[in-house]
Amino acid sequence: MEEKKNVINGGDVLIKCLLKENVKYMFGIPGGQFLNMYDAIYKWGKDQGIQTVLFRHEQAAAHAADAYARVTNTPGVCFGTAGPGAVDLVPGVNAAWGDNIPLIAIVPQVISKYQDSFSLQSGLDQVTMFKPITKYQKSVLKVEKIPDAVQKCFREAIGGRPRPVLLEIYEDAFLGEIDEKELLILDAENYRAIEQPGISNESIIKSLDLLLKAEKPLIISGGGVSRAGAWKELQEFAEYLLIPVITTIMGIGTIPNKSKCLIGASIAGPSLKAAAESDVILALGCRFSYAMGHGDEPFWKNSQKMIQVDIDPSIIGRAKPISLGIVGDCKLFLKQMLDEVKKTNKVEKREWLEDLTEIRKNTIDTSIKKSSKDKIPIIPKRMIKDVLEWIDEDAILIIDGGDIACYAIEQIDFYKSREPLSTLQTVGMGQLGVSVPYGIGAKLAKPDKQVVTISGDGSFMINIQDLETAARLGLNNLIYVIGNNNAWGMIKSGQKLFMGKRYIDVDLPEFDYAKCAEGFGCYGEVVTDPNELKPALDRAKNSGKPAILDVKITFDTPDATKLMGSMGIL
């Protein structure tokens, strides 16, 4: 008797593959070529743990997948239909590319027989379009090739330096059918390396020797520490040798406030002194971007010795001369360093660290004093202070904007510890408009945690349409705080500082974000008095809805903007 076949289509195959990778959410907007994929989710996919999250714009969907990946440290998945849907994904994928975030962007392609026949949404070379902002691109024409393509995409997105990848699936593959018994969908350990490569013992001994001989050693904790999950090892190692630690923006949270070794985030305040005066630097997963002064003088010194550890060999020695370059995983490196350092005596006192700690304390005290003014309109520093004092200890914080982001980073670790993987900002590309979708992605990733965004008014408007998505999903304790100065603040600061205050296209009209939020089904409130901000935050938290606080602030220029302007970054 002939064995009965269990025939499934390409949509079924794709969902089976994504479930194998433990994908829970797919962020996007439907399209005609995705019908079989959606049908698979409807018929059996939801029961097995996967679902789509409908957005109002593909850019926002990609940003949400990006945020989900940042918070969970696993790949996010976004999708958009062929042609215009794929084009709309580009800004979101680009932001993830700039910050080394693992993201799987799935786009369909019109059926092959109509590819050159002016069919709807056809004729666009999507693979070439995504090449500059994805690490890997794979196009699939046949249903039986889908499992291999999915596995290759995940391997590339996660392996080495994580980054977005593109999976293009022709409608031929979605419509194709195959006997399920002929499918081979491998477990992760059967097609990619699970363990990261170790570091040679010689490199460990050399690294430790340089640090032990240093008078003013310094550790920089970057995004590589975050992605490797190496924060416990970092804290233990730094505290064993009493080495001060500064973080990049992507490394915020990798060393807690309670640690005596934390000096600050980015090169501001006491971190400036630490960067300029250290004699041996251990740079962990750090790219030396603009936010770290590019590794250049006067922020750093060419005479400094540097040990640079990164999973990507192309980063080693790229921005600054090195004494020792190590290609490897930051977590394994620190584990091996801990094993070796414990053969020596623990450092009990380091005046270099004590000096920096005292500067940090004075910097915080001065900042709090300056930020406590009751002026109306509210000064930006006051808004940031009150939000950072108010938020939950384990809240996820999202920063979106120009000048307002600078104000936020200045005070980011002054009040409460930032948890690892809990501070989200598009550093590499400086992408605006992420607050609404990042909030949604982060909240879906960690539904039990409070999610708070700090945004400029200009950047908030860019993806305001997906407030409807947040309301539809019923996301509460998701609070959007808008620093509203009716301006594109950072560009206005540039025109103020360098263009003789000749302002053009930087002043924005009055807009009631609170009423707009209510129209989308959210809670909305305008705040004009600084003493009303914390009570307003309480009301927002208790509203049972996504909440928007339109905080009226004065236009001012942060010190970090002035510094970036002097560096030619603006």
Can you walk me through this structure?
It is a single chain. The protein is of the alpha/beta class and 570 residues long. The protein has three domains: 7-190, Rossmann fold; 201-356, Rossmann fold; 371-566, 3-Layer(aba) Sandwich (Rossmann fold), CATH 3.40.50.970. It is 39% helix and 17% strand. The strands form four sheets. It has a six-stranded parallel β-sheet with strand order 3-2-4-5-7-6, sandwiched between helices. Strands 11-10-9-12-13-14 form a six-stranded parallel β-sheet, sandwiched between helices. A six-stranded parallel β-sheet has the order 16-15-17-18-20-19, with helices on both faces. β19, α21 (533-541) and β20 form a beta-alpha-beta unit. α1 packs across α2 and α11 packs antiparallel against α13. It is globular. The mean pLDDT is 95.
